[in-house]
Design goal:
Blueprint (H helix, E strand, L loop, with lengths): L2 E3 L13 H10 L4 E7 L5 H11 L2 E12 L2 E8 L6 H27 L6 H8 L6 H10 L6 H9 L14 H10 L3 E4 L9 H12 L3 E8 L4 H14 L2 E5 L21 E2 H13 L5
Parallel strand pairs: 1-2, 2-3, 5-6, 6-7
Antiparallel strand pairs: 1-8, 3-4, 4-5
Bound molecules: adenosine monophosphate, fe (iii) ion (FE) (2 copies) and zinc ion.
The site of zinc ion (ZN) has 4 residues, from loops.
Length: 286
């Protein structure tokens, strides 16, 4: 059997492996194809594509847009992102600006608590262009303010933490439209991860389909047969495609490996073939 991983992160956002390193890990895991889907950026795609070509593994250029609903965050994956699409790049640039202004507010909160973390230090810790709370957590650990990232989140950075500031909302329907207009395949990431409310999800999916949503991420990190069955049924009823991936983040989520997630994930090659067939039937490149 051949397998794929259609959801991974690199140093372009909050993963800790370079894009080329993610490609090599995918190859080492024996996968036939993988997607790089960094948060709100396409900066890692060229490097990952070049390495994938060099080592002989299929590569899907992707990204994951962070949006917010009245029930919290919602992540939208775009697969087969085109190069240099200025409308999409502008949308992603705005999403990163939303991150940056939130980061500035959180650094000010930390300052009020007597914790001096500068924007420069944070940028250096991040390395890539899409900066987020995992980078802040690593910086707090490095400074000795928190024992580990978990404590950094629970004390300071997570919801309810002393330095927490919500992000200005990026609209999920707008993210779907921006991706769909660019010709990407639009997938709702880990739909049951944060708010496992199938009725609410059903209504969201019904709405987002009108804006270009084309599929659901059925397989994610840990194999969960009940969730998978629920999502497969929802996809079928809405005429949606299905996708799957580990959400690999390197050392920022050390329990998750490329390809197998927390140990037993296995996304079959047919999932990738079906996504490609749907693109071909619409005359889209893949
Ligand atoms: P941001 O995009 O800057 O809001 O950061 C969100 C990311 O932080 C998520 O994708 C998670 O990977 C990570 N995260 C959120 N909450 C926690 C937590 N309690 N512990 C560790 N990581 C977390
Ligand atoms: Fe992340
Ligand atoms: Fe996500
Ligand atoms: Zn992700």
């Amino acid at each position: 059997m051949k397998y794929v991983d259609l959801h991974t992160h690199s140093t372009a956002s909050d993963g800790t492996d370079s894009p080329a390193r993610v490609a090599r890990r995918a190859r080492e895991a024996g996968l036939a194809a993988f997607a790089l889907t960094d948060h709100d950026t396409t900066a890692g795609l060229e490097e990952a594509a070049a390495e994938a070509r060099a080592i002989g593994i299929d590569f899907v250029p992707g990204c994951e847009i962070s949006t917010r609903t009245d029930r919290g965050s919602m992540h939208i994956l775009g697969l087969w992102i085109p190069k240099n699409n200025s409308d999409l790049e502008n949308f992603l640039h705005n999403a990163r600006s939303v991150r940056d202004s939130r980061n500035v507010k959180m650094l000010a909160r930390l300052q009020e608590l007597g914790i001096n973390l500068t924007a420069e230090e944070l940028a250096e810790m991040a390395g890539g262009e899409s900066v987020g709370r995992p980078h802040m957590a690593n910086a707090l650990v490095k400074k000795g303010v928190a024992r580990d990232a978990g404590e950094a989140f629970s004390k300071y950075l997570g919801k309810g933490g002393k330095a927490y500031v919500p992000k200005e909302a990026v609209n999920p329907a707008a993210a779907c439209r921006a991706l769909a207009k660019a010709g990407a395949t639009v997938i709702l990431a880990h739909p049951l991860l944060e708010k496992p409310d199938p009725a609410w999800l059903e209504s969201q999916v019904g709405e987002l389909v009108k804006h270009g949503l084309a599929g659901l991420e059925v397989w994610h990190t840990v194999k969960n047969e009940a969730n998978e069955a629920l999502l497969l049924d929802m996809a079928r009823r809405h005429g949606l495609l299905v996708s799957g991936g580990t959400d690999y983040h390197g050392a920022n989520k050390p329990d998750i490996a490329v390809g197998s997630g927390m140990g037993n994930l296995a996304v079959p090659y047919s999932v990738y073939e079906n996504l490609r067939a749907a693109r071909k039937s619409r005359g889209l490149p893949c």
